[in-house]
């Protein structure tokens, strides 16, 4: 394990910012892409109605997808997948879902691996009984431009984009999306997401609240942040105590993990692109003791029976390389 390059195991122990994109979900993305290219995404009220996804079971709710231009010049556009509520969409709130990363696809991860109506199973799609569209109309937005199908014709944008620009594009997206789907104007709106969306969500809310002072178009009711990245120093300082109190690391490792290099320092060095040999050494020791066979997201899981991604990577590395 070279100090300059964290091992795969160390990467797998990284918390919220890492998106756990799944190969199956990526296959679904491609299916949707080809569907749109064949023209099945055109037409219908509001545009972009999806008649049926490949391998999809019969459902009664509406599905839409498409692009919303956000720069007024037609050179930058954000991609969305929108599912209406299963029952009475006209009375249900509107929920915007954002995955994090930065760089995670809300389509591949949020919609088709987490809280959307379907998930892939072999060549088909099966219903997700916990889908959020049982209670809400959900927009899965790929943001910023460069993520998933969202794009900028000017590639320099990908290098320069920051959280402020993302928040502004997201707000323009919502504004123009409501023009496409006028029946949702004034609807109760919740902004939700996970991981790095801990930045996207409050920042989008802030620009919406500002915008509302001039033109009150967003009926913003609430925010939901799942496993959010807020600030490295406050988010990541419980790991040593948690591992130690669950008997996963020794007393002496606990000591160096709280004095020589703590986890918030490790994370900021790692994301800052300059991991010190000191922190690398401490993390290697922690990783050695916790072992590859303990899922850091759920340390009490049964090692042999779990299908959690990190464990399946160890059991069948060829599937998730
Ligand atoms: C983002 O916006 C905030 C608030 O308007 C401002 O203080 C900050 O400097 C901006 N950051 C960048 C990178 O533009
Ligand atoms: C973690 O380490 C950093 C830098 O060494 C220090 O500033 C911070 O107070 C430490 N945090 C905790 C919770 O010990």
What's a concise summary of this model?
This protein has 321 residues and is an alpha/beta fold. It is built from 12 helices and 9 strands. The strands form 2 sheets. Strands 1, 2, 3, 6, 7, 8 and 9 form a 7-stranded mixed sheet that branches.
Which CATH architecture of the largest domain? 3-Layer(aba) Sandwich
- Global geometry: globular
Number of strands: 9
* Biggest sheet overview: 7 strands, mixed
CATH class annotation of the largest domain:
Alpha Beta
Order of helices and strands: HHEEEHEEEEHHEHEHHHHHH
> Looking at this structure, what is the CATH superfamily of the largest domain?
Alpha/Beta hydrolase fold, catalytic domain
Pfam family, one: Peptidase_S10
InterPro entries: AB_hydrolase_fold, Peptidase_S10, Ser_caboxypep_ser_AS
Protein name: Carboxypeptidase
Keywords: Carboxypeptidase, Hydrolase, Protease, Signal
Structure description:
The chain is α/β, with parallel strands linked by helices. It folds into two domains: 8-15 and 232-315, no CATH class; 23-226, Alpha/Beta hydrolase fold, catalytic domain (Rossmann fold, 3-Layer(aba) Sandwich), CATH 3.40.50.1820. Helices cover 38% and strands 15% of the residues. The protein has twelve helices and nine strands. The chain has helices at residues 8-13, 23-37, 106-114, 156-160, 163-180, 197-214, 232-235, 239-245, 251-259, 263-272, 277-290, 309-315, and strands at 63-69, 76-83, 94-98, 118-121, 124-127, 137-141, 151-152, 189-194, 220-226. Strands 1, 2, 3, 6, 7, 8 and 9 form a seven-stranded mixed beta sheet that branches. The protein has a two-stranded antiparallel sheet with strand order 4-5. Helix 9 (251-259) runs antiparallel to helix 11 (277-290). The protein starts with 7 loop residues before the first helix and ends in a 6-residue tail after the last helix. Residues 1-46 have low confidence and may be disordered. Bound molecules: 2-acetamido-2-deoxy-beta-D-glucopyranose (2 copies). One 2-acetamido-2-deoxy-beta-D-glucopyranose binds at residues 162, 164.
